[in-house]
Amino acid sequence: MRARIGRECLYVPSCRLGIYVALRHWCEPGGRVLMSPVNDDVILFVVLAAGLRPVQAPLSATDGSIDVDAVPDSVWNGLSAVLTTNLYGHPDPAPELRARCDRLGIPLIEDAAHAIGSERDGEPVGTFGNAAVFSLSKHVGAKAGGFLAVADPGLRAPLEQARDALLDPAALTAELAYAVRPYAEAAVRGLRLAPAAWWALRLLGLQEREEIRMPLRPAALQQALGTAPSLTGFHSWVRVDMHDYRVAPGRLRLRRIERLLAGLDDRLTAHRAGTERLLATRWAAPHPAGTPVQPLFRVPLLVADRDAAIAALARHRITVGYLYDPPLDTYAGEPFTDPSAHPANAAWFARHALPVDPLRAGRVIDVLTAAGIAPARELPGG
Question: Phi, psi (5° rounding) for residue 291?
Answer without folding.
Answer: -100, 145
